[in-house]
Write a structure and sequence with these properties.
This protein is mainly α. The protein is built from 3 helices and no strands. It has one domain. Keywords: Membrane, Signal, Transmembrane, Transmembrane helix.
């Protein structure tokens, strides 16, 4: 039983460890590095934030409706 909790804690620690990765395509990287103003990089970063936020909003809405249904 104790080893099960140890494995669970180790798994969470490994998943929460930050990693440096290069996850850009070659064309996106070339365009962003060659631009001097940084507007394109800012736009791409904002787009990533919007794309990342949508699933969280949908899951929060789902849990809210489930919570309302369970209280009624």
């Amino acid at each position: 039983m104790r080893t099960k909790y140890l494995y669970l804690i180790l798994t969470f620690l490994v998943l929460l460890t930050p990693m440096d990765v290069e996850a850009q395509c070659a064309m996106c990287r070339a365009v962003l590095e060659s631009e001097s103003t940084g507007k394109a990089a800012e736009g791409i970063n904002n787009g990533i934030v919007y794309l990342m936020a949508v699933p969280y909003v949908l899951v929060a809405a789902l849990f809210y409706f489930i919570y309302r249904k369970m209280r009624a």
